[in-house]
Amino acid sequence: MGLGLILLTSVVGGPAHAANTDPAATAPSHRVISVVHKISEVTGSSGVRREETGDRVEVALSAGILFGKDSARLSASSERRITEAARSIREAGSPAVAVAGHTDNLGSAAHGLTLSKQRADAVTRVLQRHLPKNVRLSARGYGEARPVADNDHEAGRKQNRRVTLTFHRR
What we know:
CATH 3.30.1330.60, 170 residues, 2 domains, six-stranded mixed β-sheet, globular, disordered N terminus, two-stranded antiparallel sheet, alpha+beta
C-alpha cells in the first residue's frame, strides 16, 4: 500500500454561471502547486518500512527482526527480508546502495558505534550475494547519532535500532 499526496489549487476562469458564457471557461481548472511523493509501506511485518521521496528510496529494517539482542549475527529469518530488499534494489536499477546501521542510546556510544557498523557489514554481505556485481555497496555505522524516535522510552529505542538501505531509482 502506498500513499501519494498531491496538493491542488483551483483557478477559476471567470464568474460561475455567468450568462452567455461557455461552461468550460467558468469551470475550475487545477494545477499542481506541490507534489509530495512519500510512500510508507509495511511489507509483511511492522519491522520493515519503505519510504520513497522522488527517486530516493529508503528501506529500514528493524534490528529486532534481523539480529538478536546486542548481536551482529543475523537471525534465520533475516535472509528472506534482505533478499526482498535486494529485489527492490535490482528493480530500481540502482547503481549504488548505502547501508547504515543505527542503535539506541543504551550502553556506551563507542559500543553502539561498533555494533551498528558490524550490523551494517552483516547486511552488506547478504546483499552482495543477491545483487549484480556492478552495484556499489557502502556500509557505515552511525551508532546512536541519528535517532528517528525518542530514546527515553523503549518504543522509541526499538525504532532507533535499525539498518537502513538507501538507493535511487533510475
